[in-house]
Amino acid sequence: MVIVFLGVQHSTTMPNKTCYRLPPERADQIRTSPPVVMTVMEAAAYLACSPRKLRDLIQSRKIKSARVGAKILCRREWLDAFLGV
Prior knowledge:
This protein is α+β, with helices and mostly antiparallel strands. 40% of the residues lie in helices and 22% in strands.
């Protein structure tokens, strides 16, 4: 069903939502055997925090990171250093 409001069409069905978390199986796999280099999503699962919180920590330079194009990558040793492991 489509509703027209102020000349703009709005669908009554739910739009495709963007997933901001990894699937639980992948998150468990990262926590048990983490890769050496992780994306923000993977690193957030490793730290058990949200990707937004991790980006804030990276921006405040509390966690070291590297950029490859538009991707932000974190090494496991940098995350462990933040945790004090």
